[in-house]
Amino acid sequence: MDGRVVARTVRSKIAERVKALNAANVRPNLVTILVGDNPASKTYLRNKHQACLDASMESRNVELPADTSQAKLIDLIHDLNEGSSVTGILLQLPLPKGLDETEAVSTIAPEKDVDGLHPYNLGLLTQKAAKLVPCTPSGIMVLLRYYHVGIAGKHAVVINRSKLVGRPLSQLLLNNDATVTVCHSKTQRLQEICRQADMLITGIGRRPEFTVGSDMIKRGATVVDVGTSSVGGKLMGDVDFDSAIKVADYVTPVPGGVGPMTITMLLYNTLLAACMQNKVELGLDLNELESSESSRS
Q1: Active site annotation includes 277
Q2: pLDDT tens string 46-68
Q3: Residue 115 is a catalytic residue
Q4: Which of 71, 129, 212, 274 could, after both became Cys, cross-link 87 (CB 3.0–4.6 A)?
Q5: Which among 13, 112, 113, 115 is annotated as catalytic?
Q6: How is domain 135-258 classified at the CATH fold level?
């Protein structure tokens, strides 16, 4: 499953809608917050802002020093919540030690929470009513639908229980009638469980200590790799792609699989947030896109 192909398709639709909204004086505007100087976080944000630029979407980054107090961070978020021109807020995680991520994320106005991590938005997810959904899980769902991977009635195994990926993804899969097993560091007989999966999603990121090989994959399964590790200067996922593709119907590569979809869904959420705040129609239905197009053609 080529995330770059799907991302280009979705981003072109987003760019068209953004240009139409800009002409009507509705301007999606993303503000990101970076605390400290984590090199990986800076790279992620640079890619996010470039994607915004490519989609004719306004964006800016606010950088704070690593020794920023919790109170100053909260005050900044409050100011952005009240700024009428700001339609989306993203707090780059992780935060430096000493700062409370839960409080900071919970301070972001739910309607501007383009990461979908506010407790209110996560709660709506359990009610099948969420609109702003965490970007990586929603990107995975778009990939699955774009490639016409059946979800209802299938057994999905998720090797990740984080609040960023595993937990919201498990709920999305449940909402789409999958039977879901969540695995983690305390799971016993992991290989046995994985071999039962019609869909195997892994996001550990400790390669080569943890590797998903063909012996963990059911023949004909769909494998989604969310893990990222640097091995000898090369970016790698959890999955041994070459062996996995011999038994699985679909495997996402790293890089080029889930990563491009995560940023794409950030653009989508920023567009959606702007539309909700301005009470205008989104004008973009990813379900129609997913059901009518396939990269096989």
Answers
A1: no
A2: 999 999 999 999 999 999 999 99
A3: yes
A4: 274
A5: 115
A6: Rossmann fold (3.40.50)
